[in-house]
Design goal:
Elements (H helix, E strand, L loop, with lengths): L15 E4 L2 E4 L5 H8 L8 E5 L5 H12 L4 H6 L7 E2 L9 E2 L2 E2 L7 E4 L3 H8 L4 E6 L2 H14 L10 H9 L8 H9 L7 E5 H6 L1 H11 L6 H10 L2 H6 L34 H15 L11
Parallel strand pairs: 3-7, 3-8, 4-7, 8-9
Antiparallel strand pairs: 1-2, 5-6
Helix pairs in contact: 1-4, 7-12, 9-10
Length: 300
């Protein structure tokens, strides 16, 4: 498929640009930063979390951070999540600021990206642990639709879900096509020190998934500590806590349109997708993901 061009009749992101075969917006993430990351440059870190936007990233980041920091819930409550890890894509090209605000000059063992694998291929060759987070594409796209509506850096999309879905079909969504993203990161499953966490599994059995993450990160935790992590990282708690609900970036996000932590459920796509849209995703899934053994659960 041809590389997208800047601008779309349905919606154009403010200061839109094309990088690596997908669209982004300069107000959202600086083009130069993406190129720095593509070259394999940028800060050192121990653990990288790679997710498509709105796939449960904040929860995975919070669990990983707690496991890497002696389950220090007190600090997690005091310091906003954005100040406890490095969001690589949204930093300036020198990685001194994020969201336009200065980053404290400390080491950040935990980093995250929403970039597709081909942009982070050189980073993936580093000797680091990578946690890839997936969410079923239907729920994921509904969440991105609402994010487009509330996000000023994305131009506060005002159209219907069906109008947004046209952007999806035309591969004119920030960070590119969701299936391309998932397949790209799934294709490194034989890389040592790589694990996958599914949103639906985390929703269904958080104790099991936290335990898996602890083992992957080489952290010995008691059952009581796992419960402590699970309780802190429930959707309800993270939506309430100012340190995890991204309350501090309301200059970028309009919470009156939609909260950052919106629903946190599995299957909400049924309230948005029509039959044709649902069939389109099913067909893409069967054609692109199923042959590779990559499976999604669209309901619990």
């Amino acid at each position: 498929m041809a590389e997208p061009s800047v601008g779309h009749p349905t919606h154009t992101i403010p200061q839109e640009y094309v990088v690596g075969g997908f669209i982004m917006g300069e107000q959202l993430a600086m083009e130069e930063t993406q190129k720095v990351l593509q070259r394999g440059e940028g800060p050192e870190y121990e653990v990288l979390i790679a997710t498509y936007p709105r796939s449960g990233t904040a929860r995975i980041v919070e669990i990983a951070w707690l496991l890497m920091n002696d389950i220090n819930v007190k600090k997690a409550k005091e310091v906003p999540q954005g100040g406890r890890h490095m969001f690589l894509d949204l930093c300036d090209p020198t990685f001194k600021t994020v969201f336009g605000k200065p980053l404290p000059p400390v080491d950040y063992p935990l980093a995250k990206t929403h970039l597709p694998y081909h942009m982070m291929e050189k980073h993936a060759k580093r000797d680091t642990k990578i946690i890839v987070g997936f969410r079923n594409p239907k729920d994921n796209l509904v969440s991105i639709y609402h994010f487009y509506r509330m996000n000023r850096t994305l131009g506060n999309f005002t159209g219907t879900f069906s109008e947004f879905f046209q952007l999806v079909k035309d591969k004119h969504v920030m960070y590119g096509d969701i299936f391309d993203f998932c397949v790209g990161w799934w294709n490194i499953r034989d890389r040592p020190n790589t694990m996958y966490v599914n949103y639906e599994d985390l929703t269904e059995d958080p104790v099991r998934e936290v335990r898996r993450m602890a083992e992957f990160l080489g952290k010995k935790v008691t059952d009581q500590e796992i419960i402590k992590i699970v309780e802190w990282t429930t959707f309800g708690n993270m939506a309430e806590e100012k340190s995890t609900n991204y309350d501090s970036i309301q200059h970028l996000l309009d919470f009156k349109i939609s909260p950052y932590m919106r629903k946190g459920t599995v299957g909400d796509w049924k309230n948005h997708f029509n039959e044709e849209e649902s069939k389109y995703i099913d067909e893409q899934d069967q054609k692109i993901c199923a042959p590779l053994g990559l499976k999604f659960r669209y309901e619990l």
